[in-house]
Each structure stands twice: as C-alpha cells, then as structure tokens.
Amino acid sequence: MRVIASSLRKGNVVEQDGKLFVVLKAENFHPGKGTPTTSVDMRGIQDGVKVTMRWKTTEQVEKALVDEREYDFLYDDGEGYHFMEPESFEQVTASPDVVGDSAAFLEPGMRVFLQTFEGNPISIELPQRVTVEIAETEPVLKGQTASSSYKPAITNVGVRIMVPPHIAVGTRVVINTADLTYVERAKD
C-alpha cells in the first residue's frame, strides 16, 4: 500500500529496496524556502540496523501491511518480553530491541498493542496514559504556586519526568507515555 511520506508515524512498517523497516521516529520539516521534507529514523526488521531516510513530504512510500492486535504482557526473562493474545491465548516473545524504552512501563497483565509481521513482534504501543508513583523529587516549598515552573522527578519505574511544584515523594501521578509528560494527579 503506497502512502505519502508525511503520513508515516512511529510503529509503521515501510518496505524499502525489498527490505522491511519499522519506523522509530518521523519528523516533517517545512523550511521557509525549498521543498518540505520528512526525515524518518527506521530499524531493519531482519538485521536490526538503524537507518535514517529523507523524502519529500509528498513522495510515495510503500507501507507494508502488518497484523496489529491487543496482547496482554505476561513477563520478561532472558529470552525477551512475553505477550499473550487474549482471544486465542497464543504467546509471542518480543526482543528487547522491539520493546525499547517501553520496558519501564510494562507490568504483568497490562494490555498493549503489538504489531507483528509473519508472527514476529516488530513494534509495541503502550496505553496512552499510565499511573506511576513519584520516588524522588525536590521538597515542596511554601509559597510556590501550581502555575510556576515544573521541577524534575524520578518515578518508581526509573523514568525522569517534570512535575508541578506541589507534587511530593509518594504521590501517584498519571503520565503520557508518548512524550513522558505529567498529565494529572492520580485519582486512586
């Protein structure tokens, strides 16, 4: 299926020169003069080699058809990350390369979207929001308002985020998994 380059997103699978690549990052550039371009960081599915390609935003790119389904995360071990399809109970194992930074958020039973090509996981998509606990941050200062600047914090899963000044250690917060930004204080 051919699509324009500017429509590529993280997790898409592209066929280039007879090889399949999974998109890691796609950015559109619109210079003041000249042709707008799309820069795409990709990883080869067969060999794992990372490459960067640049296309004109209107150029046609071959997008491979992949199977995208919900899976439940089971556990991780020396072999990789194990997922189970909830309908058929079919299990697949994703390599650490495929899971990448998402590994910090995976908890047993978590429902994720896995893209598979010929039965092999090639990309993972986490829920849009996850709840984490603040493990380390600067103390709350009196007189600081919630509208002032954010302060750095480390979550219980080891991810660094920026939180409002009123958030203290032990507070559960909701964060956006796409860009690791604070959304709100957890309501539980």
UniProtKB/TrEMBL annotation:
Entry GO CC: cytosol
Domain spans labelled Elongation factor P C-terminal: 130-185
SMART domains found in the cross-reference section: EFP (SM01185), Elong-fact-P_C (SM00841)
Pfam families referenced in this protein's UniProt entry, alphabetically: EFP, EFP_N, Elong-fact-P_C
GO biological process per UniProt: peptide biosynthetic process
Major localization class: cytoplasm
Single annotated GO MF: translation elongation factor activity
Pathway participation: Protein biosynthesis; polypeptide chain elongation
Keywords, sorted A to Z: Cytoplasm, Elongation factor, Protein biosynthesis
CDD domains assigned to the protein according to its UniProt record, in alphabetical order: S1_EF-P_repeat_1, S1_EF-P_repeat_2
PROSITE patterns in the record: EFP
Cell location: Cytoplasm
Highest taxon of the lineage: Bacteria
SUPFAM superfamilies named among the record's database cross-references: Nucleic acid-binding proteins (SSF50249), Translation proteins SH3-like domain (SSF50104)
Residues of the Translation elongation factor P/YeiP central domain: 68-122
Keyword Cell division belongs to the record: no
Similarity remark: Belongs to the elongation factor P family.
Function: Involved in peptide bond synthesis. Stimulates efficient translation and peptide-bond synthesis on native or reconstituted 70S ribosomes in vitro. Probably functions indirectly by altering the affinity of the ribosome for aminoacyl-tRNA, thus increasing their reactivity as acceptors for peptidyl transferase.
UniProt-listed PANTHER family: ELONGATION FACTOR P (PTHR30053), TRANSLATION ELONGATION FACTOR KOW-LIKE DOMAIN-CONTAINING PROTEIN (PTHR30053:SF14)
Protein's recorded name: Elongation factor P
Recorded name of the encoding gene: efp
